[in-house]
Design brief:
0% strand; mainly alpha
C-alpha cells in the first residue's frame, strides 16, 4: 500500500509537469517533473526514497524507450548548415566539458552530463545518457537544473541580439537551431519571425538531435565497464526515434507523444523524489558558469561563420 501510494504521488507529479508544459512550452516537462519530485520528496524520509529507487530500474528503461517518439530527424538540411550544426554541437560539448573539468575541477560525470545537455537537446539528452554515465542522483538533478536555466536565458537573449545586431533571418535561424538547448525554445525564439524561419531553425536543431546516437556510443565507450556496450533501452530509443522520424504517421505520433512524454516525466519525478535536496544545495555555481561560457563561445563562433558564409 505504501509503495503504491508513492508511485501514485510521483505519477501525479509527472502528469502535472506535462500539463503545465503544454500550457507554457518554455517550461520543459522533464525539468518540471524533476523539480516537483524533489519538492515532494522533502516531505518523506529516506525509507520512502529507497522504496522508489527500486522502481527506477524498471520505469527508467521504459521512459527512455518511449521518449524516442518525441525525436524528429530531418535529413534534408543543406549540407553547409548541417556542418555548422554539427560543429556547434562539438564546440558546445567540448567547451563546457573542458571548462567544467579542467578549470573548475568539477566531477567528471557532472561535466559530461552538462556537456551532453548543452550539445544535443537539453534535459532530454541528459536523461538519455545518464544510464551510461551512471552519475549520482544529485549530479543528475543539478545538470538538468543548470541546462534548463541556461536554455531559458539563451532563448531570452537571442531575440534581443537579433534586433540589437540586425542579424539576417537565415543567420538568426541557424543560430537558434545550432545553440539553443531545447526544441521548444527554438520554436519560441523563431516563431514570431514567421513559419519559414522557425522551420529552418528546427531543421538545424534536428541535426544536433540526430547526434544523440553518436554521443550515446561515445558515452558507452568511455563509461561502460564492457567496451562498446550500449544498454538495450538506448538501442530501443534510437530505433523508436527512427520510426518516429521516417515510419510513423502524424496521427500515430499525435497519440504516442503525449503518452511517452508523461512516462518520461514520471521517471524524472521519481528521480527527483529519491534525491536528498541538501546534496543539490551543496552544488557550487561553477557548473552554471561553465554552461554559460560554452553557450557564449558557440554563439560567437557560429555567428562569425555565418557572417563569412
Amino acid at each position: 500500500m505504501r509503495n503504491s501510494g508513492i508511485l501514485m504521488i510521483v505519477s501525479l507529479c509527472g502528469i502535472a509537469a506535462y500539463m503545465i508544459s503544454v500550457l507554457y512550452s518554455p517550461l520543459d516537462a522533464l525539468f518540471l517533473a524533476l523539480i516537483f519530485g524533489i519538492f515532494v520528496g522533502t516531505f518523506f524520509d529516506e525509507s520512502y526514497k529507497r522504496s522508489i529507487e527500486r522502481y527506477l530500474s524498471v520505469i527508467l528503461p521504459i521512459g527512455i524507450t518511449m521518449y524516442g517518439t518525441n525525436i524528429k530527424l530531418n535529413l534534408c538540411v543543406a549540407t553547409k548548415y548541417a556542418s555548422v550544426a554539427t560543429f556547434s554541437a562539438f564546440i558546445l560539448g567540448i567547451t563546457v566539458y573542458l571548462i567544467g573539468k579542467k578549470i573548475f575541477k568539477l566531477n567528471d560525470k557532472l561535466s559530461a552530463l552538462i556537456s551532453c545537455g548543452s550539445a544535443i537537446c537539453g534535459a532530454s539528452a541528459i536523461a538519455i545518457v545518464s544510464p551510461l554515465v551512471k552519475p549520482k542522483k544529485e549530479e543528475f538533478s543539478a545538470a538538468i537544473i543548470v541546462i534548463t536555466i541556461v536554455g531559458l536565458t539563451s532563448a531570452i537573449v537571442l531575440p534581443f541580439l537579433y534586433h540589437l545586431l540586425s542579424i539576417p533571418l537565415n543567420t538568426y535561424a541557424v543560430l537558434c537551431g545550432a545553440t539553443l538547448h531545447q526544441t521548444a525554445l527554438v520554436e519560441i525564439a523563431t516563431k514570431p519571425l514567421g513559419d519559414d524561419v522557425m522551420k529552418w531553425a528546427l531543421e538545424v536543431k534536428g541535426v544536433r538531435i540526430a547526434l544523440i546516437a553518436v554521443v550515446a556510443f561515445i558515452m558507452s565507450v568511455v563509461y561502460s565497464k564492457h567496451r562498446y556496450h550500449v544498454p538495450w533501452y538506448i538501442a530501443a530509443f534510437l530505433i523508436v526515434s527512427y520510426f518516429s522520424s521516417f515510419v510513423f504517421t502524424d496521427e500515430i505520433l499525435r497519440f504516442l507523444r503525449p503518452i511517452s512524454t508523461i512516462a518520461f516525466s514520471i521517471t524524472l519525478a521519481s528521480v527527483g523524489f529519491s534525491v536528498n535536496v541538501k546534496d543539490i544545495q551543496n552544488m557550487r555555481i561553477e557548473p552554471l558558469i561553465a554552461a554559460y561560457t560554452g553557450w557564449i563561445c558557440a554563439f560567437l563562433i557560429i555567428f562569425a561563420i555565418m557572417v563569412i558564409l
